[in-house]
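re: that chain from earlier
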Amino acid sequence: MRTRTGARLGQYAALLAYLAFLALPFLWLVSTAFKPPRELASPHPTWIPRDPTLANFRQAFDEQPLVHAALNSLLAALGAAVIAVLIGTPMAYVVARRRTVLSRAATGWVVVSQAFPFVLVIIPLFLVLKSLRLIDSLAGLILVYVVWALPFALWMLAGYVRAVPVELEEAAAVDGAGRLRTLVSVTAPLLAPGIVATALFAFVTAWNEFFFALVLLKTPEKQTLPVVLTHFIGAEGVADLGPLAAAAFLATLPSLVVFALLQRRITSGMLAGAVKS
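^ sequence. v structure.
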């Protein structure tokens, strides 16, 4: 009993340490965003601003086009999420239901593609987009995000498809439904939590992505929010800390809001009520 209690306490301690590891940087970012310049320059920083101010937020919006950059990021993230789900769902169905050489090759592609770093693929990717005349365009950036998110989306959705009882599809086939009708009318509704989770992953990944956007987008009016945040760092590497923290805090809010709105659907039972006795 003592061993079990000690193990439980150790698990709770590890969980609290992990939560602190995730939360403390964000809390410090929020604190910095509301501090006036004299507190930012203080040799004795505090967690809670002594004289909180909104001047950093006003300065951030005055210095950089944050709203326009956020709209660019939103368009790229939503486009990548929707397209990745539309392509990944039927692909995942085939991979999960048909155990063929092609499906095994697709699974291997998922594993191998995640091993390539961004730097390794940026040059051939740049040349391909240049030949398609998609350099310096949000359409080209969305295409890159879809290709990068699709392997993980395929792997994730395939797991959800395997959890759907085959008997439901067989019953639909007995009623005369074809493969496409079964996928749309029977399987897809049961995959709703998986589809939402996959779309959320693709959205957050595209929203936070920096490297591809930095290389592929040159026109200031087309740059996304992570790229615009770098403009708060001067040529000598000195950061305008207050406005940078304020802009970074605003940039994290959409991801937090999207997850807060959808987390109940993600964690809900996938097949609740699907099979009734």
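The radius of gyration is 23 Å.
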